């Protein structure tokens, strides 16, 4: 009996070793490119071509590349523009998505299902197809070369976030809403004081997704922001490389 238990313990222990070995291998595969990227940026090169074979550690550690980047490219201005865009976009997305999702989930008004279907149908149309009509609208209302010209189309067409909030609110007990109504709270107060605090986990997820999406966005800012001083980090780097 003891031998059998010992054999099972060895097998279980061996499985754990293999499990963590595989996890470690995956972690190395994920971290290594970022490590190599940082180390390469700290190496001093006489030209822009990388050495072959590539080396993992810099032979001549230097901040020369960063000094040249700050000297030749207004990267701090690009970063500031990007941070402003990210903050404004995330705030508006959270407000619009939480309000819309809450109203569609807990509201009782005619055509509620049609409104949800109309919002979700927006996800079926690629942004590239809607690009020219949206740009013409932005241009006609005078929002070209303006951060709000970049932000508003994304906020108004962000069906995925609204759908996430709606599904989350559907899973919350209706007793919460009814208790607020019985206590005489307005619909906005029920939203702000009861449901919004409970939306913390899903809102945090949406914020992360939105930050990554806005930070990496290139096509729409390139069309709307023709003024170089308003360039985001992605747009500025593309313009510098070309």
TrEMBL record:
Pfam families documented for this protein: BPD_transp_1
Gene3D superfamilies in UniProt: MetI-like
Cross-referenced InterPro entries: MetI-like, MetI-like_sf
SUPFAM superfamilies in UniProt: MetI-like
Gene Ontology terms describing biological process: transmembrane transport
Subcellular location: Cell membrane
Top-level taxonomic group: Bacteria
Stretches assigned to the ABC transmembrane type-1 domain: 79-242
The entry's keywords: Cell membrane, Membrane, Transmembrane, Transmembrane helix, Transport
Transmembrane portions of the chain: 12-39, 75-102, 114-135, 147-169, 190-212
Membrane topology, from the record: Multi-pass membrane protein
GO terms for cellular component: plasma membrane
Signal peptide residues on this chain, from the entry's feature table: none
Record-stated family: Belongs to the binding-protein-dependent transport system permease family.
PANTHER family: ABC TRANSPORTER PERMEASE PROTEIN MG189-RELATED-RELATED, LACTOSE TRANSPORT SYSTEM PERMEASE PROTEIN LACG
Protein name listed in UniProt: Carbohydrate ABC transporter permease
Organism: Candidatus Caccousia stercoris
